[in-house]
Design a protein that fits this description.
Blueprint lengths: L27 H5 L3 E7 L5 E8 L12 E8 L7 E4 L5 E7 L3 E6 L8 E6 L6 E4 L8 E3 L5 E7 L4 H8 L14 E7 L15 E2 L6 E7 L5 E7 L4 H6 L2 E6 L7 E6 L4 E6 L6 E5 L10 E5 L5 E3 L7 E9 L2 E8 L2 E8 L4 E5 L5 E6 L7 E7 L2 E8 L9 E2 L15 E7 L5 E7 L10 E7 L19 H5 L4 E6 L8 H4 L9 H15 L3 E11 L1 H10 L8 E5 L5 H7 L3 H9 L7 H6 L13 E6 L8 H13 L4 E6 L9 H19 L28 H4 L12
Parallel strand pairs: 31-32, 31-33, 33-34, 34-35, 35-36
Antiparallel strand pairs: 1-2, 2-3, 3-4, 5-6, 6-7, 7-8, 9-10, 10-11, 11-12, 13-14, 14-15, 15-16, 17-18, 18-19, 19-20, 21-22, 22-23, 23-24, 25-26, 26-27, 27-28, 29-30, 30-32
Length: 713
């Protein structure tokens, strides 16, 4: 493969030069400061929406850390009317309305030692603490009458154990001494009422055993349904959930019923009359994702309301006692639909619009607030009225107004057929200033999971920087290979017990299709991705090394044998990935490991990993790096991020990842190749607000914000 390409080289030594062809392209500081809408709640009368806005910290300007989370309120009748309620360097969580006059939220404020539940009047004024717990108030649900709150908090550590730890007895009993999260109930003082010096002391619902994931009240407030697992281990949250219903009208909270999930389990909710329960559930214990909308019988039976849906339901809301609204992924699109408890379904929002998978309905009649994104905007709030089902959703917020002045590259859906006849699809982002007939370098962004997929919405983040790459002359492709979600249960199971087989062959089929169209230069193709996408990238650097001129695995798998012994999801790997165990099929695990084919490596490989990753242990990257470096057949570099887990959370680590990976692709797909670029990076050169940075784009750089990234196995 010729890596010494003879044409003009654009290095990552400085931001892109603004030219007539790229009047205002996407730059690294734009990606680093993208804001994004998160959780939304609509007031009972439908007039207001309270929502969270994720605002990244600015690298070099603020201490590195996770994004700030602000509370904003929107007038649902007026687009662009959003106003900040609690903003700045704050972390607000889980907004909800108590009646139409008060917004509740969680936060750690002032002298708080842990997160507490607060309320703030809709008309303005100071927030006040409503409920607190020594270990913090986590997710919560307000009772229908607003007088009580059920919330999650870790169980308290015994004083004797605290004393021993202070004396140095801080040993960890691996996977056995993790504290459980329990369910608590507390009274909530009325609006304007004093909670007293001691506040409302929470009461433990000790009839609910194990680790509690979530809870929901029945409409009358007399019952409470808790989703539980036996332990706090993440593997149990994938494979061993149950729904425990308790009588919340009695002091000892007796258990009314317990239903064990048939597989993965998502949202659970009572019908308005409290007589039925719906859930987003897996079809069976081998289903990779919770994506079926089910009615849950009292005896534990699950009835699929949408058995013919070749997609995955993400969320739902009861519209009345006989109808539910649901949001679902269908291929690269999303849809909003209505289904009756008898299974009669209709599509309200046809595939083809904004990608919206979560929404909030008012208790009374009114429009829903839909959180959605599009190819030219990250997540925003859209207004959609189910009473006018054919009217398209209307975007109500604009969290990144500077994006209106950025020239974005063209994005389109691409469909092609695998050799076995299976239709595949993905998203293509053209180079900015694309010229027909010219061939371009390609970056393949492979999603994680594999029970995940790319939708035709906003695709650019710190780890999936397609628009940034487009400004530098790259084409980018986001493939939804077999095993992805969004196409129904059968399609999502096609990769089981076939790791790195047809699923990764699909990636080569996609590249070949783009070569055949005349868009892509075969000798200038790179591959990257996180988690399972990192596995695919390691496979591209070894087994398929002859097809890739650069590879960047992120928190990826290199050795399936040692992976099984170091991951925190061993049962999940058996049930929905491999469908076998190591001791029953050693040969399968060995030959589906990239290191088995390490001698094929001729691809320059940049490996990145969080040092505290519990899902894919950092040793997976250490193994791959050591073998590639020992062989010495191609350049290799390993970058570890202290304090990061399965994907980068901190602003500095995200910026480093983005600049480092983009530079690697430029060096080997467009540049001189050969020895790796220097490992040092001049971060200030890309940040207009930093000393020594390029200040030509200060206005568009000012907004802070968050982008999502990193695939999650």
């Amino acid at each position: 493969m010729n890596r010494n390409i003879a044409f003009i080289v654009v290095t990552l030594a400085a931001p892109v030069t603004v030219t007539a062809q790229t009047p205002n392209p996407m730059e690294p500081h734009h990606v680093a400061t993208l804001r994004s809408v998160g959780t939304v709640a609509v007031s009972p009368d439908g007039s207001l929406a309270a929502y969270l806005l994720s605002v990244p910290r600015r690298p070099l300007d603020e201490d590195s850390g996770g994004s700030w989370t602000e509370l904003h309120v929107l007038d649902m009748a007026e687009p662009g009317s959003s106003r900040p309620f609690i903003a700045g360097p704050v972390n607000v969580g889980r907004p909800s309305f108590r009646g139409n006059d008060e917004i509740l939220f969680t936060s750690r404020r002032g002298s708080d030692k842990a997160s507490a539940l607060y309320g703030i009047p809709v008309g303005g004024g100071e927030s006040r603490k409503l409920v607190e717990h020594a270990n913090g108030v986590g997710s919560y649900v307000l009772s229908p009458d607003g007088s009580r709150v059920a919330f999650l908090a870790r169980q308290e550590t015994a004083k004797e154990l605290k004393t021993l730890r202070d004396k140095g007895f801080n040993q960890e009993i691996y996977e056995e001494d993790r504290p459980l999260t329990r369910l608590w109930i507390a009274d909530v003082p009325a609006l304007g009422a004093d909670r007293g010096d001691d506040g409302s002391k929470p009461v433990l619902v000790d009839s609910v055993d194990g680790h509690v994931i979530s809870a929901v009240w029945s409409p009358g407030g007399e019952r409470l349904a808790a989703v539980t697992t036996p332990t706090a281990l993440i593997d149990d949250s994938y494979t061993s959930k149950s729904v425990v219903v308790v009588d919340a009208s009695m002091d000892d909270f007796p258990v009314v019923s317990t239903v064990k999930a048939i597989g993965k389990l998502g949202q659970v909710g009572f019908s308005p009359n409290g007589e039925q329960v719906a859930a987003v559930s897996a079809a069976d214990r081998h289903d990779p994702a919770a994506g079926r909308l089910m009615l849950v019988g009292a005896a534990g039976g699950f009835s699929d309301l949408l058995p013919e849906l070749e997609g995955h339901v993400a969320s739902f809301a009861w519209e009345d006692d006989e109808h539910l609204l649901y949001a679902a992924s269908v291929g690269v699109w999303s849809t909003l639909g209505r289904v009756s408890t008898g299974g009669e379904a209709e599509t309200l929002i046809e595939p083809g619009g904004p990608i919206g998978l979560s929404f909030s309905l008012p208790r009374d009649d009114g429009a829903a607030a839909l959180v959605a994104d599009s190819p030219d905007h990250p997540r925003e709030i859209y207004r959609y009225d189910p009473a006018e089902p054919r009217a398209p959703p209307v975007r109500m917020t604009n969290s990144n107004p500077w994006l209106d002045d950025i020239e974005l590259a063209r994005q389109e859906v691409v469909r092609h057929v695998a050799p076995d006849g299976l239709e595949l699809e993905g998203l293509l982002i053209y180079p900015l200033g694309y010229e027909e007939g010219r061939r371009y370098p390609l970056i393949l962004f492979v999603h994680g999971g594999p029970e995940s997929h790319h939708s035709n919405g906003w695709l650019t983040s710190y780890s999936n920087f397609a628009q940034l790459a487009a400004a530098r002359g790259f084409a980018s492709f986001y493939p939804n290979y077999r095993g992805s979600t969004g196409r129904g249960v059968e399609f999502s199971k096609l990769g089981q017990h076939a790791a790195a087989g047809p699923e990764f062959d699909d990636l080569i089929v996609a590249v070949d299709h783009l070569i055949e169209t005349g868009l892509v230069d075969r000798d200038r193709v790179g591959i990257t991705g996180g988690s399972y996408g990192g596995y695919a990238s390691a496979w591209g650097a070894t087994y398929y090394s002859d097809r890739f001129a650069a590879a960047i695995p992120f928190v990826g798998i290199s050795n399936n044998i040692s992976k099984l012994g170091t991951t925190d999801i061993p049962l999940e790997m058996e049930l929905v990935h491999h469908r076998t165990t190591l001791w029953d099929d050693w040969d399968y695990f060995e030959k589906s490991s990239p290191i088995y084919y390490v001698k094929r490596n001729r691809t320059p490989t940049l490996i990145l990993h969080g040092k505290e990753d519990p899902r894919v242990h950092p040793s997976q990257s250490l193994e791959l790096h050591r073998h590639l470096k020992t062989l010495g057949q191609a350049p290799v570099r390993l970058v570890l991020y202290p304090g990061e887990g399965h994907g980068n959370r901190r602003s500095a680590a995200r910026l480093d990842y983005m600049l480092r990976t983009l530079r690697w692709m430029e060096h080997y797909l467009k540049g001189p190749g050969g020895d790796p670029p220097p490992h040092e990076i001049d971060y200030a050169a890309y940040l207009p607000w930093a000393e020594g940075g390029d200040d030509t784009d200060e206005e568009t750089a000012t907004p802070d914000a968050e982008s999502t990234g990193g695939g999650g196995e």
